[in-house]
Amino acid sequence: MLYRMTSRCTYPLEKIISGGQTGVDRAALDVALHHRFPCGGYCPKGRKAEDGTIHDRYPLTEHTSADYAKRTLANIVHSHGTLIIYSQVMKGGTALTADYCSQHERPFLLLNAHRQDSAQAAGLALEFFRKFDVRCLNVAGPRHSQWAAGYRYTYHCMDRILKTCLQRNEPLSS
Fold first, then answer.
1. 2.60.120.260, 3.40.390.30, 3.40.50.450, 3.40.50.2300: which CATH number matches 12-171?
2. Cβ-contact 6, 170 below 8 angstroms
């Protein structure tokens, strides 16, 4: 069952996208799939990730390039806003995501797990959705090898977000 927004809903969220990498990206997609919430995004050509080939259960579109940076930019420009979830220091692709958002003047929210628990982060994210009318949300952050706890933190945060949004939505007819 898919969901659609109703006039009763105070959150505009309609879809979650990510690049499908292990860690933060994968957690966002797993939560969306668990709730049967629309999801997708661009992944590198060949569906590559640090754990091998991204499984077909993730409804991702292969970018024409195998370059992670090009996939990152595609997800930013095809979304209405980006959540960047990290712990303590941004580096690598996570820092690049913030740079791209700034360069392309796209709204983004930095959620530092070292400063906010997942419940606090979810509350900040919901405010961000309202403020910037985020309908298609890009979720980005470190891969598993760079932050092993990132998957669990992101899963809990995104689960709270979707539970809040879905209690105000109505199912789409089949």
1. 3.40.50.450
2. yes
